[in-house]
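Troubleshooting log. The previous structure file for this entry was overwritten by mistake, so regenerating from the original sequence record. Sequence copied from the archived sheet and checked twice against the printout by T.R.
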Amino acid sequence: MAGVALAAMHAKGSRMFDAYIICGTPRTGSTLLCKLLASTKTAGDPHSFYRRQDVSEWAQEWNLPARDTMSDLEFNTAYLGAAITAGKGGTGIFGLRLMRENLDELSAILDQIFPRLPSDKARLERAFGDILYIHLSRENKLAQAISLVKAEQTGLWHIAPDGTEIERVGPPGEPRYDFQRIKQEVTELEAYDAAWNIWFAAQGITPLRVGYERLSSSPPATLLSICEALGVQAPSADDVRPGVAKLADETSLDWMRRYHLDAAV
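Regenerated output below.
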């Protein structure tokens, strides 16, 4: 990890990168990581600015002119500028959370703004500067799929350490074990993770790899290692307070046991 960071160091003082992109898939701890990075006050304020379902909401929050009053190029250019400001959060570094399913759309938008560049990497770095790509993945894809299915069924995506709800996207519902649905999600999550690795190789990118298992078990150590790679001041480990708690429970464990039994039939 240190080698990746040191290789990218250039004349910016102690800071090594202009930006970072958290390259993830759903239920890999990206919300926890985003909140940890924002809490440092030195490492930007990352969000999913280019998740298609959220673009209108972000544009409204940033008081951008109505989309129908501008051309696509004008809107996309204004949106990019506002996203960079928001993603920096008053710091010197821009943070972005990006799921693989949104990568191609973002590249197309940047191709419109910065035409005739030769690759996705060239477009991203023309927009955001020198980037640390952070590949956030989860080794246990079955646990990841179960977490995703439960969130979709219950409408509850994230809770705080005290149990209060942080993010709910639907009315409360009862979780229902569904072997085929979980199996489908395992396959899709494996495909998205593989797609990131194929893209990294095609673009000549060596990402900083961060595993959900280490992030969830040791948030302070994970945060400090990322801050070191970025070249930004890290907080004291004693001051790191994870703002998101695990949703895994006995139901999750029961579903895992049932899935293994069903898969063996």
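The chain is about 50% helix and 10% strand. Archived copy saved in two places this time.
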